[in-house]
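tool=predict chain=A
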Amino acid sequence: MLLYVSTISAAVLTPPEVLSPEQYLANQGQPPPYDSTVRLNLTDVLSNTSTMAHNITNGNSLLRADCNGRRYGVHVNSRSCFNALRLIPRTNEQLYFGMRYTPAGLASTIKLPYRWLSPDGLCSVQLYLIGTVQKAHASLLEIAQAADLIYAKCVASDANLGGFALEIGGDNELGVVMQKNFPGDVHCLPRPAPRPFTCRNIVDTILATSRRELFGPGGDPQVEAALPAVFSDGKDSLFEVFVVDRRILLDELRRRETALTMIEFVAREECFATIKDPTRGSSYASWYKMWEAITTIYWMCMAGSVPLTGKAFGIGSARSIEMILSDRPER
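tool=predict ok
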């Protein structure tokens, strides 16, 4: 994946500098090995839980689900959560999960944070590491069963609350949360977009740390993340496409009745994620908020039967940063 960073000096846009994620991280410093965006603190989540704990046999472990409206939402839209639940593939293969851009994350099948989001953006299913562990393993079937239990016991019940599940997978180091989601100001534009699996790698490799940074024009010594910035990757992780987005990919191949090989099909498309501030001002935000924005665009605009360009508005303390996911860099 390439990151294009443009710098602004005396109101003149200079040619973009091309950086790889590794170069960007070398310039900015490595993400911390412990980050709250990918972790469940059991002391926090077990407080104010309802009495709706429920154990079922799940492989070699006992799956536990609890409802917690204070943390994960009340009056959760059950139809939205059902639609989010349907997106999770039910495969038995054991996968590895770790925080992106850490040694454990780089060796993982799925980089955290990771979430499935309903098409209307109102309910999400998100994966977390438990406590201070660096990695976990589980199958997508086990994750789906955990989400099933949360849905039945918390969301679709009279309680109508968000909730979480523990004791998942072979090492019981992974947690699943189903919660009320607030998608923010996201618009799906009537403009052709890349196929969703083409953009998957950008969603899965963009930084997602929780530390607040100053986003703004390059050249400002106080700015930590220069804007505009454009992420691009025309090649996807085929293994992750098969594991996570198999349904989307196979539906598309059947629709086109194509004779292309998988590699040829993916390589013919390219996806761009543009982060910009039209006001050319500065705004505090975290890369986690950027990840949330691009993930919301992906699921609300691109993962449907007709992929559309998506745009998120109002990001950052000044609510002036925009994120666009499309087939071209945005000016």
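The first helix runs from residue 21 to 28. Confidence is low (pLDDT under 50) at residues 4-13, 51-60, 234-249, 256-268.
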